[in-house]
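Appendix C: a fully annotated inverse folding record. The material below is reproduced so that readers can follow the format used throughout the book. The structure is listed first as tokens, followed by the designed sequence.
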């Protein structure tokens, strides 16, 4: 199945000059969504994964389905101030400013094997910050699984030394 057929380009969103890759048509098609989940999990079929860390907000969609399929725990990563309990956070630079990402302090225990999941990798800044948080908490990053990779933004460079798997490349 060619999943690119289910990705819609939205010009000038969220700002002028950006072409947003809209995954909602893929989510509307049950077979395409199922195929996407299976494709994102396949490279890690033989790996031990204790928990899947999913990134706000579209990453939650894929991460929760993947955690369910793998019978793994689900960790949610959100922007600063969005989680209700004690958190650990990390601030990092983006191409358009600075961001802070958080997870709950009890999300990871020493030795947990974590697969980090998001819908898209652009510059890799958020993913790299999450890997740092996982390692700071004593977890091991098994790798990253993204539905979409914008190759022209070189996000893999930020994740050198980690396993990075993507299903769709632009």
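Designed amino acids, in order:
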């Amino acid at each position: 199945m060619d999943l690119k057929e289910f990705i819609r380009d939205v010009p000038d969103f969220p700002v002028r000059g950006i072409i947003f890759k809209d995954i909602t048509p893929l989510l509307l098609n049950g077979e395409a969504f199922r195929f996407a989940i299976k494709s994102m999990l396949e490279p890690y079929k033989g790996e031990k994964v204790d928990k899947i860390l999913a990134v706000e907000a579209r990453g939650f969609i894929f991460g929760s389905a993947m955690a369910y399929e793998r019978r793994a725990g689900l960790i949610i990563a959100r922007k600063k101030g969005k989680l209700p309990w004690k958190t650990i956070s990390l601030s990092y630079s983006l191409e358009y400013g600075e961001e802070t990402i958080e997870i709950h302090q009890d999300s990871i225990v020493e030795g947990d094997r974590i697969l980090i999941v998001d819908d898209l990798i652009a510059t890799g800044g958020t993913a790299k910050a999450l890997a740092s948080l996982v390692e700071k908490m004593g977890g091991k990053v098994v790798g990253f699984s993204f539905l979409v990779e914008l190759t022209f933004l070189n996000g893999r460079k930020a994740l050198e030394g980690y396993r990075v798997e993507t299903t769709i490349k632009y």
